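Before relying on records like the one below, remember that each one covers exactly one chain. Contacts with other chains, cofactors or solvent are not represented anywhere in the record.
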Amino acid sequence: MKHNKIDWNDVWKELYNENLHCRGSDECASIWESRERARDFLNRSLDNPERILNIITTLPVESGTRVLDIGAGPGTLAVPLAGVAAHVTAVEPADGMAEVMTEYAEKEGLTNLSVVRKRWEDLDPAVDLDGRFDVVVASYSLGMPDIRAAIEAMCKVSSRWVYLYWFAGTTTWEQAQIDLWPALHGTEYRQGPKADVLFNVLYSMGICPNVQTSRMAHTRTFPDLDTAVAEFRAQYRVETPAQERVLRDYLARTLTTNGGTLLHSGMTTRVKFWWEVNRCQ
């Protein structure tokens, strides 16, 4: 097959669906319906602010800027951005995430953040959004099967900038799944689409984005092995005692110790794509 005949959006869909089937999850947002899990996610992000600062300090956001944050989670970006921008609209479908984000904004005394509790794919800009935005951001929230349609919609609601953040290569958490899946489920783990596919989707749309790659540490800490097993049990679809033994043995071998704390750590490669919409239309 010739390169120019490849439908990269179809490649994205195929990899997305294979990964979804492998994980046995209906939606990426479904695991974040719990307020407890959402609050834990926010706390871990605040304990390791490198990623947040790396994004916020490089966005063209100032006092008069209107920002749209797609897949905003518990507000790790939306709330700090609201402290700088004129207004931030956060799109977040998971109830737990949206509730924690609202609490976070209230704690910070911010009133210029609004939350739209819908998936980006289900949102009607004419009904759910208030005009266009100077900056549209989707930070590690591209769990969308039709990525081309999602990006087209982002461009339509942006008056200037679109910023996308995604992963390149195997992430730390995926490596564990790759290692464990044959023993847990008798099959190979299928990774979702990465930044190479995303770039080709953009290029096929006539978008030639700026690209920046960075390496960042990803670390989870646990007080003991039982806590680590409990954390990963659902994520790795562990349902039987035999599967739990496999998981426990793997974590016992791979977690490192630091002052009595167990660490699950590694490096991830992250890619930022950004462009001005008026140069791509």
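The chain has a mean pLDDT of 92.
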